[in-house]
Design a protein that fits this description.
It is a single chain. It is built from 15 helices and two strands. By secondary structure, it is an all-alpha fold. The protein has one domain: MetI-like (MetI-like fold), CATH 1.10.3720.10. Strands 1-2 form a two-stranded antiparallel sheet. The longest helix has about 35 residues. It is globular. The chain starts with a helix and ends with a helix. The relative contact order is 0.14.
């Protein structure tokens, strides 16, 4: 265990300690070597900043919506495509392709495709229908980002649910079919309860990823018009690099870390309880 402990102490403990010091200090790029301790003032300034709460609301909505949509589509695809994937394993590689592309590259690609003046999609929509929505303006950018995120990460949910679905013993389905249970009842009464733990894990992972989203949003819209697409990660980035408010940025990142930790702990606790109920049943 010694090499692992040393690795964690060197690469995690020191940066965490520096972040704690900076979050409690009045520090700029000029005073990073000699920060002035100011206590919890940075946290107070972050918590009264309207942009912080707007970014938090954006990240919360984005995380919940993308997690629910991705897991719903992934579950439906896992059940519908299970016979095809089981017979033709190579189809799994094709279905995983969107997940293999870096999120920042996906954001850049869709920025080119959806650009109001140069993008091919607005061009052809205008050519065929006489008008095209502004996909990246303040009114539509949020839903555009949701669609882009869902298209890229639904394969991840599909992979988890496919593995969980095919691991359900076939004898259970055969016994239910012999009792004349319909396909819907087999799914609702047998398959879905046996996949609850996987569904909870997938929802938790995808929510945390959506809640702390940065790369594809930053590449596609940035903070958006009037800050309409400013996530918490982008808020921290702008406070640190553009505003030079290092103490506030680190304090906001500490709050984001604590929120993610609480959500992760809640998801683990829910998974443990579901596992205990399943074992008891």
């Amino acid at each position: 265990m010694t090499p692992l402990v040393v690795f964690l102490l060197v690469f995690l403990s020191f940066p965490a300690l520096v972040n704690i010091v900076y979050s409690l200090s009045d520090v700029t790029f000029q005073t990073m070597r000699a920060p002035e301790i100011v206590g919890l003032r940075n946290f107070g300034e972050v918590l009264i900043d309207p942009e912080f709460w707007a970014a938090s609301w954006f990240s919360l909505r984005f995380g919940v919506l993308t997690a629910v949509i991705e897991c719903s589509l992934g579950l439906a695809l896992a059940i519908f495509l299970s016979p095809i994937v089981s017979r033709h394993g190579w189809t799994m590689a094709i279905l995983m392709l969107p997940m293999m592309v870096a999120a920042s590259m996906v954001g850049l690609m869709y920025r080119l495709v959806l650009h109001e003046f140069a993008g091919p999609l607005p061009h052809y929509l205008t050519l065929w229908f006489g008008t095209s929505p502004a996909f990246l303006d303040a009114n539509n950018a949020f839903w555009t980002l949701v669609v882009v995120e869902v298209l890229q990460w639904t394969p991840f949910a599909f992979l988890l649910f496919h593995v969980a679905y095919i691991s359900i013993p076939s004898e259970i389905r055969e016994a239910a079919a012999m009792d004349r249970a319909s396909a819907w009842k087999i799914f609702w009464r047998i398959e879905l309860p046996m996949m609850k733990a996987t569904i909870a894990i997938a929802l938790g992972i995808r929510f945390i990823d959506g809640f702390r989203v940065f790369d594809n949003v930053f590449a596609l819209t940035g903070a958006g018009a009037g800050g309409s697409t400013m996530s918490l990660s982008i808020y921290i980035y702008q406070s640190f690099f553009k505003g030079g408010q290092i103490g506030q940025a680190v304090a906001a990142s500490a709050l984001l870390f604590l929120a993610s930790l609480v959500l992760l702990y809640g998801g683990a606790l829910l998974h443990s309880r579901l596992g205990q109920r399943r074992a008891a049943a």
